[in-house]
Amino acid sequence: MSKRFINSINYMRGICMLGVIGIHVGSIALTNPAPNLGLVSILEILTRFSVPAFFFLSAFGMFYSEPLSKPFSYSTYLRRRLKTVLIPYVTWSFFYMLYSAALSHNGMIFEPGNIVKTLWYGLAMYHIYFLVILLWFYVLMPIWRPMLRFMDHKPWFWFPLLFIVNAVFNFYSSYIWDFHFSSSLLQDAFNFRLNYVIFHYLFIFMFGAYTAEHFDDVKNWLSHHGVFINILQILSTAGILMSFYGVMKYLHYDALSAVYTVHQLSPTGMLYTVSTMLFLLYWWECRPVPQKVHFLLNMLGNYSYPIYLVHPVFLSMLTGIAAHLHIYLRSLHIIIIYCIVTLCAILFSALLPKLHLPKWMYVCIKGK
After folding, report:
1. Where do the TM regions start and end (predicted)?
2. Is 312 a domain residue?
3. In the chain, how many domains are there?
């Protein structure tokens, strides 16, 4: 018997997708010599849970459909997952390589060495590296299953320990390590480590796996700890905002440097991500969701994957038009751009099934 569809998880996909678009639109706001810090904090800081949250959601889906209690066929699992991610990854990578080459009138990216480097590290567009990390998580599934089974014996000990170890690793990777190698291959491997080193997101991935394995227990715990969850969310949100404004006030960072410092891999960013996952699960699993909100969030969740893949096209077009018309992008323009990009990406996703394309094209575009 197949397990029930969990609306809250689908809602989270949609919300996270809105957050990812916010991060990318926020980078435009940061180009302003005097950016609106309130808008930047919304687009670039409060959305920071979005990227690691997708690893939580991916792990949840993997372990919810392939629980530890059932037989596991690695070849069948991998074939299905690679179809969902690898084929769209390669398709959209080449699309963005063509897109960038056309805009820059430079085809050097199609030199064999550059193609390999671009695909290996996910460099075709600023957002697509996520799929590289996800593919590594998929390929290494035989490690995660026994690891979760082992951690399951004492989760209240192993998960806090993994969080601390992961936070220390991320701290050193983000702020301390600065190695230089004579080999360009080794230097690229170090420079692009955030694009493929899965340990950066190991805790949140395993937390998603644990939540899937014990979803009813987690839901029951959340239903009895609503006050704690809400307070934790308030404190973690205040913490990440204070970190953002604090590094600007006390370390004299500009807004761009502050955003690069207070990101999802920072200690406050990791805590904020975990808190937000629990907060959203509480409000969407343990509290009633209005029907109109359900419809909107469910639609966003259903369209989240193609929205993720295509939205940089519309963002690039709008910023290009603004540059051509010499429009100085103030806060209102940034908000309008966000809305238009989101609506265009939703429209693309909604129209895609109505085009009646051959099945192989659907596989290339969105994996199914």
Report:
1. 12-30, 42-64, 85-103, 123-144, 156-177, 197-215, 227-245, 265-284, 305-325, 331-352
2. yes
3. 1
Q: From CA 118, how far away is CA 308, in angstroms rounded?
A: 19
Q: Give the integer Cα–Cα distance in Å for 249 and 251.
A: 6
Question: Within a domain: residue 2?
Answer: no
Percent of the chain exceeding pLDDT 90 equals 88
Residue 209 to residues 49, 56, 70, 159, Cα–Cα distance (Å): 17, 7, 15, 12
Tens of pLDDT, residues 129-185: 999 999 999 999 999 999 999 999 999 999 999 999 999 999 999 999 999 999 999
**What is the spatial distance between Cα 190 and Cα 90, in angstroms, rounded to a whole number?**
23
Which range of residues forms the domain containing residue 248?
Answer: 7-366
